[in-house]
Amino acid sequence: MTDTILVTGGAGYIGSHTVLALLEAGHVVVVLDNLCNSSALSLQRVAQIAGRAAQFVQGDIRDAALLDELFARHDFAAVLHFAGLKAVGESVREPLRYYDTNVAGSIALSQAMARAGVFRLVFSSSATVYGEPGQMPISEACPTGIPANPYGRSKLMVEDLLRDLAKSDPRWRIALLRYFNPVGAHPSGLIGEDPNGIPNNLLPYISQVAVGKLAQLSVFGDDYPTPDGTGVRDYIHVIDLAEGHVQALSALGEQAGAHVWNLGTGSGYSVLQMIEAFEQASGRKVPYQIVPRRPGDIAECWADPARAANELGWTATRGLPDMMADAWRWQSMNPDGYAD
Fold it and tell me: Which is nearest to 127 in space by CA: 119, 118, 117, 137?
């Protein structure tokens, strides 16, 4: 069945890969994105891969009049909500901007959906909502913690308000998808992660060192209680993540209420393992230096993905070599991202 889906933030890294997955699954897609940290070129590349295009509307999720106009013009079956700010350090410097965009934006979107009678929503959340977990792996039964920064707290606030919304009205069907660490790119090399300025995440930073844009990588701490002393994280290929959204969308057809699913692999890799795997995939050395730990960083974090496997029929299938090869292909073909 062909549904029309609204994707907010669909020109961004995870959004663009999910738009592609939706198009490949036969859906009609409308993207709303203000391009504050993304590029419309990503959607042109998605159309090249898919053989058909999503409709693109440039605008902000806080613009109620624009939202009402979009919902009046299209018969949306559901909304996938990626639009938001995501840099941890920036959120500490500019908390009001993060709460306004991420929390107030989600409220404005939910209000517009309710006015239009659209009650199926997939929300892009984060494993940061678990705070500093007391056990590994992290299952959905683990309590949420107190995230260490405004970015993480904004994600948890949106989860809480969406849960309250689902309790208040049985028509709502909401998926709260908690991502672990998305990496990689489409194997075509046409779409991938294009961070503004200095990357905040490990793999884009490694990639930019390998391609010569940055001199060396800083490894924050080598004295954690992990096998090699560096932090361990659950890295998931962005295409596996995108496919998880399509599966969650299908599952919401029957399930009223708000539902939480972790999207991760269930395996952890250390920073040094990531560097070594990238060097093997790229044939390039990645110089690095050990520097002091960052405040707020935890030693290890990986998912228990069993619930998504049981309830969505979804598991991550792409391993570390795929993640690295695809990330390097994207970076080497697009050394300046979408600015080429």
Answer: 137
Dihedral of CA atoms 249, 250, 253, 255 in degrees, nearest 10, equals -80
Q: What is the mean pLDDT of residues 184-213?
A: 94
Are the C-beta atoms of 144 and 129 separated by less than 8 Å? Answer: yes
User: What is the reported pTM?
Assistant: 0.97
Residue 259: strand pairing partners: 175
Distance between CA atoms of residues 33 and 21, nearest Å? 18
In the chain, how long is the greatest CA-to-CA distance? 56
**Residue of 156, 85, 81 lying closest to 122 (CA atoms):** 81
Task: Identify the DSSP state of 276.
Answer: H
Q: Which two tokens stand for residue 233?
A: 């994280």
Report whether pLDDT(296) > 80.
no
C-alpha 245/C-alpha 80 separation (Å) is: 8
pLDDT greater than 90 at residue 126: yes
Nearest Cα neighbor of 261 from 105, 138, 158, 106 is 138
Cα–Cα–Cα angle for 264, 269, 272, rounded to 5 degrees: 150
Count CB neighbours of 126 within 10 A. 20
**Per-residue pLDDT band at 340 (split at 50, 70, 90):** low
Cα angle at 237 between 313 and 52, to 5 degrees?
80
- For the ranges 105-109, 126-130, 193-197, the lowest mean pLDDT is seen at 193-197
Cis amide leading into 292 (omega within 30): no
What amino acid positions are annotated as catalytic residues? 151
Amino acid at 62: R
Residue 217 has pLDDT above 70, yes or no: yes
Q: How far apart are CA 31 and CA 37, in angstroms?
A: 15
SS3 (DSSP) at 312 = helix
Name the DSSP class of 67: H
Q: Which helix (H) or strand (E) holds 21?
A: helix 13-24
- The H or E element spanning position 121 is strand 120-126
